[in-house]
Amino acid sequence: MSFELTRSAERFIRMMIMADGKPGSGFRLAVTPGGCSGLNSDVAVVDAPAEGEQVVEKGSLRLFLNAESRILLDGVTIDFADTPLQTGLVFHDPKATGSCSSH
């Protein structure tokens, strides 16, 4: 499994952990199929990984990913968008076959 985090995404995750976490907290990222990029996500700052989650370290960040998320994120670049239309994590998946604007 290999995925990239942009600086904007790293900054967003770091700010979430600083605001809601304690030392050693991590960022739970649960990804499911769906959405404009082909992926939906649920995020939370938690103290420890849940059963079945793997700790993936990206720089100084600790991400807690379940098995499905690890598979779906392979090859994906995770970005953060803050626009009038969208605020949150954005997934750029080279395997995605369509987008919301292609309908």
TrEMBL record:
Which residues does the UniProt record annotate as the domain Core? Answer: 1-101
GO MF terms on file? Answer: 2 iron, 2 sulfur cluster binding
Q: Its domain of life?
A: Bacteria
Gene3D superfamilies for the chain: HesB-like domain
Q: Which InterPro entries match?
A: ATAP, ATAP_core_dom, HesB-like_dom_sf
Q: Which Pfam families match?
A: Fe-S_biosyn (PF01521)
GO biological process terms held by the UniProt record? iron-sulfur cluster assembly
Name the UniProt record assigns to this protein: Iron-sulfur cluster assembly accessory protein
